[in-house]
Write a structure and sequence with these properties.
Helix content is 30%, strand content 17%. An eight-stranded parallel beta sheet has the order 3-11-10-8-7-6-5-4. A three-stranded antiparallel beta sheet has the order 9-13-12, with no helix packed on it. A three-stranded antiparallel beta sheet has the order 14-18-17.
C-alpha cells in the first residue's frame, strides 16, 4: 500500500505535497489557505496579486500616470498591497495548519521591492519564499533579513551551483529546499537553457539526482528537500523517488491539479475547458515577452501568435545580396528590400487582409491585419513595466527605461492577458498557462462526470498516491 510520510518543511512537519504558485491571481489566499489547512505546503502568488476594498470588492488595477516609469511605480504599490492581502486571507483560512509560502518571479517588475514590502507588511504570516523565472541571487539575502526560508526554482544542477557560489552559501541555514521545475513538462515559464532541445525532453530522475549531488557538494544536508515540479500527477507513479537514498528528502509540487478545485479562483469556463483537453493540447513555445520558453493551452490566443510568426519575412533597408525586390509598406509606402519570393508571399498575405507590416528586432517583418496592429501598438504604449525587461514593449527596469532594442510585435502584453483571464476573460482568446499533463483531467476517474473536488479532497487523494 502506498504510504506518504510527512517531512520538515519551513520548520514544521507537513505532508510533502506542495501547491505550485501560479501567477497573478490563480493561486490566491483562498486556494492556498485551504491547501495549508489540509496539512500541505501552500503557495500563493505574489505576482501582481489582487487586493480588495473594505467591503471585500476587488480593486481594479487602473493606472493613472502617463509614463511607463510612473506606471511601474503604481504597479509595485499594487503588488505589495495585493500580496499582503492574500497572505492575510491564506493565514486566516489555514487555521495555523501546514506552511504558507509566497511565490515571486525574479524577472517581474519590482520583484525585490514587492518581496520586501510583502514580507514586512505580512510579518509572521509567510513561512517561505519560492522564486524562479531568472537567477534570483538576492532572494536569500532578502529572506534572511526577514527570517523566512527561501526556495529557489531551478531546472538544472548547474543553475543551483551558480546561485550557491554567488550568494546562497552566505545564508545556507535558511535554504528551505530547492524546487526542480522540469523544463519540458511544467506549466507557465520554463527554464530551458540554450544547450537543451525543447523537442527532446530528458527524464527528470537523472537531472534531480545530479541536483542532489551538487547540493551535497555544496554542503547542503539531505534533509533539505528537493521539490519535484512539473509532470507530477499521481504519486503512485513516483514511488521509486520516495525514500530513495540517492535523492534525499523529496516533496512533490502540483501546479496543474489545484486549478480544478472548488476553491480555485479561475472561472468556471476555464475549469470546464481543462476537462476537455487532449494529449498534445499544451504547447511549449517562446512567444512570452520574458524571452523564456513557456507552456500554455493551444487556444485561439496561441494559434494567432503561431500564425503571426509564420507570416514573417526578412528585409533590408537597401538592396543587398538576394534582397533585390522592392516592397512598399506602411501608410507612406516606404520601400524595403526583400527577396523576390518573399515579395510574392508578402503580397499574398496583404491580399488576404494582413496589410500591416510590423518591424521586429531581427530585421524581419510580420504581417497582421489593421485591427491587430492597432492592438499591438496600444498595448506597447500602455506598458506598465510588469517585467524587469520586456521583449514586447522594450521596457526595462533601468534608468533609461528601455532595453535599447526595438519592441517585438511577435510577442504580447502578458500583464493584460493574465489579468483578463484571471478575472473571467474569454478562455479562447487569452493566455491559458497549463502543465503538459493537463489532458489527464479528462481521463482520471476522480473527475468523472465533471466532478470538481475541494482542496481538502484533492490533498487527501494525492496523499494516497492517486
Amino acid at each position: 500500500m502506498f504510504k506518504l510520510d510527512p517531512i520538515v518543511i519551513s520548520g514544521r512537519e507537513v505532508l510533502p505535497l506542495v501547491e505550485g504558485g501560479k501567477g497573478i491571481n490563480v493561486s490566491n489566499g483562498e486556494s492556498s489557505g485551504a491547501w495549508a489547512a489540509a496539512g500541505g505546503v501552500a503557495t500563493f502568488s505574489g505576482v501582481n496579486a489582487d487586493n480588495y476594498d473594505e467591503n471585500g470588492n476587488l480593486i481594479p488595477m487602473v493606472y493613472h500616470t502617463k509614463t511607463r516609469t510612473d506606471r511601474h511605480k503604481e504597479l509595485i504599490a499594487f503588488g505589495i498591497k495585493g500580496a499582503i492581502a492574500q497572505a492575510r486571507i491564506a493565514h486566516d483560512i489555514s487555521g495555523g495548519q501546514g506552511r504558507l509560502h509566497m511565490n515571486v518571479l525574479w524577472e517581474m517588475g519590482g520583484a525585490e521591492e514587492i518581496l520586501e514590502g510583502a514580507l514586512e507588511g505580512a510579518k509572521g504570516l509567510i513561512h517561505g519564499v519560492t522564486c524562479g523565472a531568472g537567477m534570483p541571487y538576492k532572494v536569500a539575502e532578502i529572506a534572511a533579513k526577514h527570517n523566512v526560508f527561501y526556495y529557489p526554482i531551478v531546472s538544472s544542477a548547474r543553475a543551483f551551483r551558480a546561485l550557491w557560489k554567488r550568494s546562497y552559501h552566505k545564508h545556507g541555514s535558511l535554504l528551505g529546499g530547492v524546487v526542480y521545475e522540469d523544463p519540458w513538462l511544467a506549466g507557465g515559464h520554463n527554464g530551458l537553457s540554450n544547450s537543451e532541445n525543447p523537442e527532446k525532453p530528458e527524464p527528470p530522475l537523472g537531472r534531480v539526482r545530479e541536483l542532489r549531488n551538487t547540493m551535497r557538494e555544496c554542503g547542503v544536508a539531505d534533509s533539505v528537500p528537493v521539490f519535484m515540479a512539473g509532470g507530477v500527477w499521481a504519486l503512485k507513479e513516483w514511488e521509486e523517488w520516495i525514500g530513495n537514498p540517492e535523492l534525499g528528502a523529496i516533496a512533490f509540487q502540483f501546479g496543474t491539479r489545484p486549478l480544478l478545485t472548488q476553491e480555485s479562483p479561475i472561472s468556471d469556463a476555464w475549469k470546464q475547458r481543462l476537462l476537455t483537453l487532449k494529449s498534445g493540447d499544451v504547447l511549449l513555445h517562446r512567444f512570452s515577452p520574458t524571452g523564456f520558453y513557456s507552456s500554455a493551452v493551444k487556444n485561439t490566443f496561441i494559434t494567432e501568435l503561431v500564425d503571426r510568426s509564420h507570416r514573417q519575412i526578412a528585409f533590408s533597408s537597401e538592396a543587398v545580396g538576394d534582397h533585390v525586390a522592392e516592397l512598399p509598406i506602411g501608410a507612406r509606402k516606404r520601400i524595403v528590400w526583400v527577396t523576390p519570393h518573399d515579395r510574392e508571399q508578402a503580397l499574398a498575405w496583404m491580399e488576404q487582409g494582413f496589410t500591416e507590416a510590423l518591424r521586429t528586432p531581427d530585421s524581419t517583418l510580420v504581417f497582421v491585419d489593421a485591427e491587430k496592429a492597432e492592438e499591438i501598438r496600444k498595448d506597447q504604449v500602455d506598458c506598465m513595466g510588469c517585467l524587469s525587461q520586456c521583449v514586447f514593449s522594450n521596457w526595462a527596469q533601468n534608468e533609461a527605461g528601455t532595453t535599447g532594442k526595438k519592441a517585438d510585435p511577435r510577442s504580447f502584453c502578458i500583464q493584460k492577458t493574465l489579468q483578463n483571464i484571471g478575472h473571467g476573460g474569454d478562455v479562447e482568446n487569452e493566455l491559458m498557462f497549463a502543465g503538459h499533463n493537463a489532458f489527464r483531467f479528462g481521463s482520471d476517474p476522480f473527475y468523472a462526470g465533471g466532478f470538481i473536488p475541494t482542496v481538502r479532497q484533492l490533498v487527501e487523494r494525492l496523499a494516497i498516491g492517486e
